[in-house]
Every structure is written in structure tokens, then in C-alpha cells.
Amino acid sequence: MTIGVLAAFFNGFFSSVRSGFIKHHLVNTDSIIAAWISSVIALLITLPLLLIIEPLVMPTQFWTDVIVVSMMNALTAVFTVKALKKGDLSIIDPLRSLVPVFVLLCGPFILNEYPDMFGLLGVLSIIAGSYLLELRKTGLGILSPVKALWRHPGAPYMIVNTLLWGVSSTVSKRAIIGTSTTHYIIALSSFMALFLTIAALFRIRTTHLKVAHFSFSKQIAPLFIIGFLGAAIHYCQAIAMTYMLAVYVIAIKRLDLIFSIIIGKIFFRESSFGFRFAAGVLMITGTFIILFF
Q1: Among 1, 7, 2, which residue's Cα sits nearest to residue 240?
Q2: Phi (first) and psi of residue 44, to 5 degrees
Q3: Which residue has the higher pLDDT, 212 or 293?
Q4: pLDDT above 60 for 254
Q5: CB-based contact 197:41 (threshold 8 Å)
Q6: Which residues contact 269 (CB under 8 A, 6 or more apart)?
Q7: CB-based contacts of 280: which residues, under 8 Å, 6+ apart?
């Protein structure tokens, strides 16, 4: 389980750093083009793994699951760029902490996974921490944070992402169980690059967007890092899924909230740091409940 915890933790850390790079470097970049280029880079980083694995005959269910997860991840890649371009990192990124709610709902049906009492308490603590992030800022009323999040320009994209991540996380574990993590990552990266290439070509054709206007000299380095982090995120999550319940992996992954809040404060000078950090501590408490009870 220790390996699974570390993999889930680094999954969250890499996700937070990746969000910071997107927020800082891709403000003026088309969302679909940015997601496409970073996915192709992630695929190029992943392909050398073919040299160290043995060919396997995959069942039909594996390919179905990978295609579904790839399509969802392609959408979330575009929506993440859109959300972070429109809103504060320390408000938008922590919305991903709601993903365990949807994993809790999907897990029993797709994976037949049920957390125990302490595990459920830990997950609920993480969810509560994410909810408290906006409670002080939005004023009175128990539903005021929800209303404020929907009014925030980048929030709708990230809330849709939480739904997609909740489903894709459970489906991805089913795919991983039937094969190896390396085979899964290669297949996932390949289909994501394919779907985003189709989306990018359609985007260029319908909007007459000129890729030549894309500043490769200034943006290729950040996109390479974003693509590398994307590959690392998928690999860490796949490893963690082999050791832990899907809902525990996603809950522990949400520790990246702390990094997002700190990055938002240091690099983007975002406000309400103290209260957001306190809410993050509540989420960390939930993680320790999962680990040690």
C-alpha cells in the first residue's frame, strides 16, 4: 500500500505543478491547440516504453475502456486549459477535490469497490475541505459557495471535469486490472493524441486558426514540460490504482490542493490564502484517516 500512497501523492503533486504551468504560460494560447501539442509530447515520451514490454493480446473490454477514458481525458485536457485561463488557480484547481464524490458513486457499480467506515470518513473530510474553500469568501448561506463557484468564469469547465474524472477514474482501473500499467499508459496516450489531433485539425479548419502564429520558440518548452507532467500523472495514477481502492487514490491525489494554493499565492498573488490553506489542512486530515485507520 505504501507504493500506492506514494504514487497517488506524486500524481497529485505533478497535477498541481502542471496546472501552474498552464496558468502561467498558456494564457494566450488556443485551448485545443495547447492540449493537442502537449498530448503529442506525452505520447512521444511514452512510446519508448514499447522497447521494454512484451506484446499482449488485450480483451475487447480493455479497448472499450481505454477509448472511453481517452475521450474523457481529451475533453478534460481542453476544459482544464480553458478553466485556468479564466480564473484564479487557487479557486479553480481545488474544485478537483470533488472528484472523490463521483468516484464514490461510480465505484460500487463499475468496480464493486466499497470503502470501509474510516475510509468513507476520510473521503468526506476531503470533500468538506474543498467545500469550505469558498465559504468565507462568498458570505452567509450554506449554498453560497456553490452559487459562487458557478458564477466564477472558469468554474463550470472544472465542475464538468470533476464529473468526467469521476467516471474515467473508475473505468481506467477496470482497464488496468485486465492488463499492465505500461500497456495501459501507452494505449491511453495513443488514443488521447489521436482524438486531440482530430479536434485540432477541425479547430484549424473551421476557425482558420493558423498554427504558424503559434510561438514555438516561446511556448514549446512549457508545453514539453506540461506533456511530460501529463505522462507522469497518468503513470502514477495507474500504479496507485493497482494497490488501492480507486476512491482512495483519487482522494489522496487531492493533496495537490495544498500545492495549488501555495503556487497561486506565491506566483500569481491570489488572495484569501490563510482560509484556503486551513481548508486544505482539513483535507490532509482526511487523507491520514484513510491511511492509518
Answers
A1: 7
A2: -65, -35
A3: 293
A4: yes
A5: no
A6: none
A7: 94, 129, 257, 258, 261
